[in-house]
Amino acid sequence: MLDQETILLAEDDENDVALIQRAFRKAGLRESLKLVPDGERAIEYLAGRGAYADRERFPMPFLVLLDLKMPGVNGFEVLQWARAQPDLKRLLIVVLTSSNLQEDVDRSYELGANSYLVKPVEFKDMVNLVQRFEAYWTELNRIPTGSETLKLARPEPSLL
After folding, report:
1. Nearest 5 degrees, angle CA 108-CA 19-CA 30?
2. Angle, to 10 degrees, between the axis of helix 75-84 and the axis of helix 102-110?
């Protein structure tokens, strides 16, 4: 089901971007991924400003995959900004980072992350993560109602 949703990937490392894109393709989700190279552009995308003002080309994402360690505006700052926006309070934000530090995990959740995942190094492990990730967010997890950003055509769990 995630192949029909827009997922925003905020990631500055080109190698990680390539690995994640390949894993999404392998999992059959290639069309759903939109990329931004840093936190500043993630905020612009989510706000629909500048180059991202055209919502036909840059639709509001169903979910954000957010790296923490980016130059300039980092992932923590993006989280803090997003949760301060009334229309984005319920946007699904998943931290996908190389940091395994407990202080980063704690801070991410304190700032409103919905989940925290550590990037696998091996391609097969990244594919496995993406497949499990899709199953969780489309089959197991229930999303809240009442958010303009999440008013998407979602199947009832009984139909899955």
Report:
1. 95
2. 20
This prediction has a pTM of: 0.84
Task: For residue 113, give the amino acid letter.
Answer: A
pLDDT tens for the chain, residues 1 to 160:
555 688 999 999 999 999 999 888 888 776 678 999 999 999 999 999 999 999 999 999 989 999 999 999 999 999 999 999 999 998 999 999 999 999 999 999 999 999 999 999 888 998 888 888 777 766 666 666 644 444 443 333 333 3
Among candidates 34, 33, 32, which has minimal Cα distance to 3? Answer: 32
Residue ranges per domain, the chain?
A: 2-159
Tokens, residue 146: 């009442």
Both tokens of 123, joined, read 């391609």
Candidate CATH numbers 3.40.30.10, 3.40.50.2300, 1.20.1250.20, 3.30.70.20; the one for domain 2-159: 3.40.50.2300
By residue count, the chain amounts to: 160
